[in-house]
Hints:
Layout: E1 9-12, E2 21-28, E3 31-39, E4 47-48, H1 50-55, E5 64-70, E6 73-86, E7 89-98, E8 107-108, E9 117-122, E10 127-132
Parallel strand pairs: 3-8, 4-7
Antiparallel strand pairs: 1-10, 2-3, 2-6, 5-6, 6-7, 9-10
Amino acid sequence: MTESIEFDVVREYSLFDVGITVDTNLRFADLDVDVSARLDTGASYCIFSRYLGEELGIEIESGIAVLIGTATGSFRVFGHQLTMTVCGLEFVSTVYFAESVHFDRNVLGRIGFLDRVKLGLIEPEGKLLLSRYQR
């Protein structure tokens, strides 16, 4: 059985970089920040560095507390609803900011991003294909 899928966005990424990084904008109230974030199909949530939330004027610890477990340990994050734009596609999502100032990664995970898009990868060509998911 063959299935065809159409995508609205095609972005090239470097095959030499670690991971697939995309330009992302986070907006809360009248403030916004631009950041590079990595796609992470193994991450449950979209998680960003604490300082980004602080730049948006968010009181980090006032959000929904979640303990994230990894193979190397655990860390706390706090969820806040905001507007996120990835590759020109805009979503209202709950994203999480790390409690620790030492957390230095920004990831786009399943809940808040991957559950809102159709995603295609052509790894040998370094192509990322995206569209908003609509039932």
